[in-house]
Design goal:
single chain; 2 helices; mainly alpha
């Protein structure tokens, strides 16, 4: 597996981890998910452009 694939998997797992459906994350709102979503979008774009 390439480094880009591993990075993409880690970011997707981070996105699932910050969703406000877990009891400890209900007060966070959607801000952490939005930040990780932007990071995921950047990683996907870089991956598709062949930069990773």
């Amino acid at each position: 597996m390439s480094l880009g694939t591993i990075l993409l998997i880690v970011v997707i797992l981070m996105l699932v981890g910050v969703l406000p459906v877990w009891p400890h994350a209900r007060s966070w709102g959607y801000a952490p998910g939005g930040i990780v979503g932007v990071i995921l979008l950047i990683v996907i774009v870089l991956f598709l452009l062949g930069r990773l």
